[in-house]
Amino acid sequence: MATLVIFLYFALFVRGIAALTMAGAGKMFPTRLKASSGIVGVFSILLAIIFLAFPALTIGTLIFLLSIGLLFVGIEAIAAGSRARDRARDRVRSEQDMIIASQSNLEL
After folding, report:
1. Distances (CA, A) of 43 to 12, 48, 98
2. What angle do CA 36, 22, 50 make, to 5 degrees?
3. How far is it, in rounded angstroms, from Cα 51 to Cα 66?
4. Spatial separation of the C-alpha atoms in residues 8 and 1, rounded to whole Å
C-alpha cells in the first residue's frame, strides 16, 4: 500500500509540474488551453499532497481520486490534440492552396 501511495504521489506531482510548466511557458497555445493546463496542474499537485498526507486512505478511495485526476488529464490531452490537429489541417490546406496557385501561374 505504501508503494502505491508513493508511486501515485510521484506520478501526480510530476504531471502537475509538467502541466504548470506548459501553462506558463506555452506561448504558442491559446489562453483557454493554458488555463486548463494550469488548473489540471494545480489539481494534480493537490491530489499528490492528499495522497502523501493521508496514506491510510483505502484503495477504493485512491482509485476514485486517481480516476478523477486522470479524467481531467485525459480531457486536457484530447483538447490539446484536437487543437493541434486543426492547426495541422489548416497548414496542409494552406500549402495545398499555394501549390495549386503556383501551378496555375505556370500554366499561364
Report:
1. 9, 9, 44
2. 65
3. 10
4. 11
How far, in whole angstroms, is CA 22 from its chain's centroid? 8
Q: Mean pLDDT: which of 19-28, 36-45, 72-81 is highest?
A: 36-45
Gap between the Cα atoms of 76 and 36, Å rounded: 7
pLDDT digits (tens, 9 = 90+) for 76-88: 888 887 777 777 7
Distance CA 17, CA 31 (A): 18
The structural domains of the chain, with segments of one domain joined by +, span 2-107
Q: What's this model's pTM, rounded to 2 decimal places?
A: 0.54
Residue 91 grid cell: 497548414
Q: Which of 34, 32, 72, 68 is nearest to 50 (CA)?
A: 68
